[in-house]
Every structure is written in C-alpha cells, then in structure tokens.
Amino acid sequence: MAKQSIFVTGIGTGIGKTIVSAVLVEKLKADYWKPVQSGDLDNSDTLTVQNLVSNPITKFHPEAYRLTQPFSPHKSAELDGITIDPGRIIAPITDNALIIEGAGGLMVPLNNQFLMIDLIKKLQAEVVLVSKNYLGSINHTILSISALKQYDIPVKGLIFNGPKEPYTEDFILGYTGIKLLGHLPEYTAVDKLSIIDAGSFLAL
Length: 204
Hints:
Layout (H helix, E strand, L loop, with lengths): L4 E6 L6 H12 L2 E3 L2 E3 L6 H8 L7 E2 L3 E3 L5 H7 L18 E4 L14 H8 L2 E6 L5 H14 L4 E7 L4 H11 L3 E5 L7 H8 L5
Parallel strand pairs: 1-6, 1-7, 2-4, 2-6, 3-5, 7-8, 8-9
Helix pairs in contact: 1-2, 1-7, 5-6
C-alpha cells in the first residue's frame, strides 16, 4: 500500500487532469499510476507526465489496461475484444505517495456495471477534483462533489485549472464547503519548469 493515495479526477474530459497530476507528482515527489489508458498509446498520459516531471524519486507504474481506441473505457475495451475486470486493477505497492489519474469524469463506465467512481471507492483513495471554468461548470462541479459525498469518498480538495472566474469559483466553494487547494494559471507552454512553478500555487 502507498503511504498516501490521491486520485485525480475531473468534472469532465479535457479539464486538465494530466497536467494537475504532473504538478502533484512533482510537488509531492510521488509515484504516478494511470489504471486505464484509452487510446493514444504512443503518447499516453503516463508518458506525458513522465516527460514533465524532473525529480529522480518518482516511479511510473504500468497501466492495468492499455486500450487502443480513444473512447470511453467500456467501448474501447469492447472494440479491443476484452471486458475490463475491476479485480485486475490493483494499486501498485510502493512506500511512496501515489498519484492515481482517472479517465474522464466520475461516471465514466469501465464496463457495463462498474464506473470510475466505483474504482475510486475500491482503491480507497482520497480525491482531488479538477474543475475548469466554462458555462455549465458550476453544475458539473457540484454534481461531481455530490456524487463523491454520496459514495462516502473523502475529498482532499478542489483545484481550478485555467482562467479565473470569481463568481463561479466563489459560489462552488461556498455552496459545497470543499477546500480550495489552489488555482493553476493558464501557461502558454507546459514544460518541466512550468510544472515546478505551478506547484507553488497549490496548498497541500
């Protein structure tokens, strides 16, 4: 078991989970694990984070499933002729802290009965939720937090990624009572230096 397991999930797809994961890995000098990769195997999230992390301590653990098609995991798995078995998704053994990156949002199906939020519960990880300001993000963020509370999953806090929108952020934080871990700025280019810099904006 890892000494600390943090599951990075988002309010949807394209929110910035991978960048946030890289920032957390670098800041905490934690290990990294992406349980399920759907598509783009030559440029996977694991490889992306690996290329953004500078410290010599972090270990990158292999995915439990590497699916060839860029769709929801349950569809990608079917196209690959397999069914994802949650019993095969076992957290790596490490003495280090472990950052786990999900795929899509909480209600993404891994198979016809098992959702991403079920995997978080199974792994007994604490959640960092990534939000990004756009029209509809209040709804998506509050629904995500409500689902986590319904599943009795501990939430470490919320990270906003990208341009600020005080009206949105203040409402979400006030309504949910979730801790704000920080706000990552929008970088024109993301590299190892910007990942290190971004860590200074997070309070963990």
